[in-house]
Amino acid sequence: MTTRVLLLGGTVEARRLAGLLAQRPESYAVTYSLAGVTSAPRLPTVAVRVGGFGGVDGLARHLRDEQVDVVVDATHPFAARMSHHAAAAGAATGVPVVALRRPGWIEQPGDDWHRVTTLAEAAHVAAALGRRIFLTTGRQEVDEFCRLRDTFCLVRAVDPPDALPPYAELVLAKGPFTVADELALIREHALDVIVTKDSGGDATSAKLEAARRLRLPVVMVDRPAVPDVPEVGTPEAALAWLDAR
Known about the structure:
Layout: E1 3-8, H1 12-22, E2 28-34, E3 47-50, H2 55-65, E4 70-73, H3 80-93, E5 97-100, E6 113-116, H4 119-129, E7 132-136, E8 152-157, E9 168-172, H5 179-188, E10 193-197, H6 206-214, E11 218-221, E12 231-232, H7 235-244
Parallel strand pairs: 1-2, 1-4, 2-3, 4-5, 5-12, 6-11, 7-8, 7-10, 8-9, 10-11
Helix pairs in contact: 1-7, 2-3, 5-6
């Protein structure tokens, strides 16, 4: 019997899992779902839907209408709202939900991390630590830094944010990034503090190694709370979980 999987994607791990499932068409029929907030996203070779569901009720209706057997929440670690919607819709319909969540970054010897819980706090702490900020929190998280009046921000994002701080330069780029590239960028712009979210993974971790080598402080925004559902850390573990159902 074929298992119908709704894969809530948008991450490297989600695409890898989609690829693994696509190799088993006799066992899994996969729909890869994206919110549609990023232009020209990288897509797997499975069925793709783009756009929201209309909250918990809309997602629950989709699960029923499409006769989904299982939901894999492989969204970004900071897409907590979607994770909560998935858990609630699964509970309402009886459809099991498993979360594929990459581990967060771990502080290493030589690191100077300053952990915060919000972007507003990150802006305050970063401004106290330096005057030239490397802001790598994504296009939707820049507004809190627009209040800084005597601080330069090098803003790196995949797509342009709606607004930029008064003294800023925008770099549009998508990882993975190398340590050499990060070192060159930091030196070129004389940056003295890095702001990032604890996204985990390898695609954007090079900036942390660069900060370590240059002895720069890092303002690290902690992950938001997520619902308590079964959790795995790799695409391979997610496939094993699905196979064991």
